[in-house]
Specification:
11-stranded mixed sheet; about 240 residues; globular; 4 helices; alpha+beta; single chain; 11 strands
Length: about 240
């Protein structure tokens, strides 16, 4: 039995929901419950939809990571929101705790390549960049403590494992990341999709959503700062 869906906003065109850490965004070969299917069931049951309800997947999030996602309820909304993703106007912003002290502001640009067999992503050297996909993120250091940094990060592109791989490449792997950092099996990664903003696909209203970060040892020493980000979000990039 899956946990109840955490819906922050819904109308006839879209839903904004909070993904749980460890939950799949969409189904895979494991057969584990996924958020896309959960959203579809929610709409079908709440609105007594006959047949299979249309739910458009606009963007994704790595399985270990929790945070905000928007789903479209119509094909028109899906098309317009997807165009915002391509134009970098649908803004996905994360918080993370990484090892060491990052610069106060930073911009990372790399070319990434994913190995589908191992589900691992690597940064390509310049001479191989034609074989990879461009990945860009911008970050701000919110607080330094105990040889770690709490960062707010804005994605310009949405590549698989992007923040995790690029932060490792920069010398600052994420706390709790047992794939690209020094995390241990079962440890929760210190990465969360805390802020999401976009233009409503039909009303053109600018919409902004923030989600509190769940408590966890990976955020130790930064709890007050995370609460403060709910009131004052830094300008990134």
């Amino acid at each position: 039995m899956s946990e109840p869906l955490n819906v922050l906003y819904e109308d006839n065109h879209l839903l904004v929901v909070v993904k749980r850490p460890g939950q799949l965004t969409q189904s895979d070969q494991t057969g584990d419950d996924d958020l896309l299917s959960q959203v579809r069931r929610y709409v079908e049951e709440k609105y007594e939809k006959p047949g299979k309800a249309y739910i458009g997947l606009v963007h994704r999030m790595d399985r270990p990571v929790g945070g905000l996602l928007v789903f479209a309820r119509t094909s028109k909304a899906a098309s317009r929101l997807s165009e915002q993703v391509r134009a970098h106007t649908l803004c996905r912003e994360y918080v993370c705790v990484c090892e060491g002290q990052t610069p106060a502001r930073f911009r990372l640009q790399d070319y990434l390549q994913k190995d589908e067999a191992s589900n691992m992503v690597r940064v390509l050297p310049d001479y191989l960049k034609a074989h990879g996909k461009l990945a860009i993120l911008n970050g701000v250091a919110v607080k330094y403590a105990d040889e770690k940094t709490l960062c707010a990060i804005r994605l310009e592109t949405g590549r698989a494992h992007q923040i995790r791989v690029q932060m490792k490449q920069s010398g600052h792997p994420l706390v709790g990341d047992n794939r690209y950092g020094n995390g241990k099996p079962g440890q929760q990664i210190a990465l969360y999709g805390m802020r999401l903003s976009f233009e409503h696909p039909t009303t053109h209203e600018q919409m902004v959503f923030l989600a509190p970060v769940p408590e966890g040892a990976q955020w130790k020493g930064f709890e007050r700062d995370l609460t403060g980000l709910l009131s004052v979000w830094p300008k990134i990039g």
